[in-house]
Amino acid sequence: MIVYKTVDIRRSELAIIHKDVAAWELPILEAMHDSVAVSGDKLVRRAVPTAIAEFQRLTALYKDSTNPNGDKGIPFVESVYGQGRIGMQNLQRAIDDAVVEDEPEAVEVEDLL
């Protein structure tokens, strides 16, 4: 199971986006937006992505940053996790930190007798 964060992203006084994201996406959102508030956690049962696949997905989803002069900057995922092999290793650690083992179902005492 994977830890997801429920976040509120304030894009303006009138625009607040409420969404659930994997825990490792939170630092990217915080790099992109001035106001990101976590309002809860939940566990989601889904396959754990590889760092390579997730790095590509996040790069496509969150695109590139913009430099102060208006030029295209590096992808947000690279600015948060790093580039190349180091970025993959850092993202893999963040993914691993968000994975929790399924808890065994509770067993009634009568079932054991």
Can you put this structure into words, describing what you see?
The chain has 113 residues and is an alpha+beta fold. Helix content is 39%, strand content 29%. It has one domain. It contains 5 helices and 5 strands. The strands form 2 sheets. Strands 2-1-3 form a 3-stranded antiparallel beta sheet. Strands 4-5 form a two-stranded antiparallel sheet.
What's the quick description here?
The protein has five helices and five strands, in the order ββαβαββααα. It is an alpha+beta fold and 113 residues long.
User: How helical, in percent, are the residues?
Assistant: 25-40%
Tally of separate domains: 1
Average of pLDDT: 90
Unreliable parts: none
Largest sheet: 3 strands, antiparallel
Distance between the termini: 31 Å
Q: What gyration radius follows from the Cα positions, in whole Å? A: 18 Å
Order of helices and strands: EEHEHEEHHH
What is the β-strand count? 5
Query: Strand percentage, roughly?
Result: 25-35%
Give the strand order of the largest sheet, numbering strands 1, 2, ... along the chain: 2-1-3
Bulk shape:
flat
What is the structural class? alpha+beta
Count of discrete alpha- or pi-helical segments spanning 4 or more residues: 5
Features:
113 residues, 3-stranded antiparallel β-sheet, alpha+beta
Q: Topology of this structure?
A:
Layout: E1 2-10, E2 16-22, H1 26-32, E3 35-44, H2 51-62, E4 64-66, E5 72-75, H3 76-81, H4 84-98, H5 109-112
Helix pairs in contact: 2-4
